[in-house]
Amino acid sequence: MSHAVQDYAKAIWSLGQRSHEPVSTSALAERIAVSPASASAMVKRLESLGLATREPYHGVELTRAGERVALEVVRHHRLLELYLAQALGMPWDRVHAEAEVLEHAISEEVSERIADALGNPTHDPHGDPIPTADGMIEEAPTRAFSDLDPGDVGTFVRVSDADPEMLRYLSDRGILPGDAFEIVEKEPFEGPLSVRFGDKVHVLGGALTQAMRAELRG
Amino acid sequence: MSHAVQDYAKAIWSLGQRSHEPVSTSALAERIAVSPASASAMVKRLESLGLATREPYHGVELTRAGERVALEVVRHHRLLELYLAQALGMPWDRVHAEAEVLEHAISEEVSERIADALGNPTHDPHGDPIPTADGMIEEAPTRAFSDLDPGDVGTFVRVSDADPEMLRYLSDRGILPGDAFEIVEKEPFEGPLSVRFGDKVHVLGGALTQAMRAELRG
DNA sequence: CGAGATTTTAAGTGGTGGCTAAACTTTGCT
DNA sequence: AGCAAAGTTTAGCCACCACTTAAAATCTCG
Known about the structure:
two-stranded antiparallel sheet, 8 helices, alpha+beta, globular, homodimer, DNA-binding, six-stranded antiparallel β-sheet
């Protein structure tokens, strides 16, 4: 089970999360940053490993086994992020890259020891839920900030961990998962969003509001 | 810089430690458990990377760059062993295998954070010295237990970390690096050695006494 | 000096993971 | 329905890595 296979499983899982439909080859290829042909070939490999089923021309889905692989990698990733930040004091915006490598290298034993050391947490520092060791995950339904409307109030629960710039930007301004917010204003045509966190109103642009997710109150 | 390259550098360094002479291809091949031809090819690769110099038919030596690579990997390995044992409570006899994998995966930043968390230790749990971040190591001259004679007293400083059985055996009997000892008796023909640790005399066989190393008193 | 040991070269294997180009299927529009 | 565009798959290829066996080269030591 090579790194690449694990990465594809993770990517398929991740893309399949929202829409519970098969994942298209091109979406997968774009996510992994390879050509569609390469993604197609890899998907075949996952199928031959029993990790995915595919309907040619209609997309891939993970089998339960494939989902387990994906969730295990995701568990490793999120535990590592939390551990690096918490136990080793690594800045929030650098843990992702490190976890991306280590997630493939740590044994089950170490990952469980890390989970224990952290008190078996349920969410990582970005607000993402951590799958359990037996391959379960509960995803609370969240909405992208870009979908919200003025007057909406709730909790900022997570932000994509893939872009260090965004993380640094947010943490520089003291905005962290768990913070309550209220949408103040929304400019039309994908314009910026004015959001109040505490007493400060921040104006957040498009890419950012697509990466940030909220649980609405009520 | 692939894992294999790092492993070869580490092996050459390790084999070159004792006798400060070039390392033979066959010794290297045996250490890595590959054919001599494979080792020969890899050595060429190290040379082309500027990590080693070789005198065909007369062995390899690491360049300063190669030594740095080796020492960095060794540093990672030993810090990880210590960290896994100390911070995550992993048993002494299992840390080696895990460190063998992770040593290639952790970044400099994480390894320095681990070193800090451990208080910048100088020795790992097996008693092996830990190279500094800038590629220095001080190796106190030690002698194998199998070379010692009755009446010799000193400190048990280290034991090869490669064999979990030995580690378990020793720790089960409460024998740990740092312990003082006295050689009580030595049977001829590579027979067992009687060694006093504290008030207990242990009879230790051949392979074990070759893996255990001592600093003699005086 | 020459036999035996060691080392190197030569040639080839199998796996991974990627690519382009061309062929094929689906979709969506008229 | 028909057709073009978009999306997907296949075919054929490449590069890398790390290893192998077999044969040739070199060294060493009696």
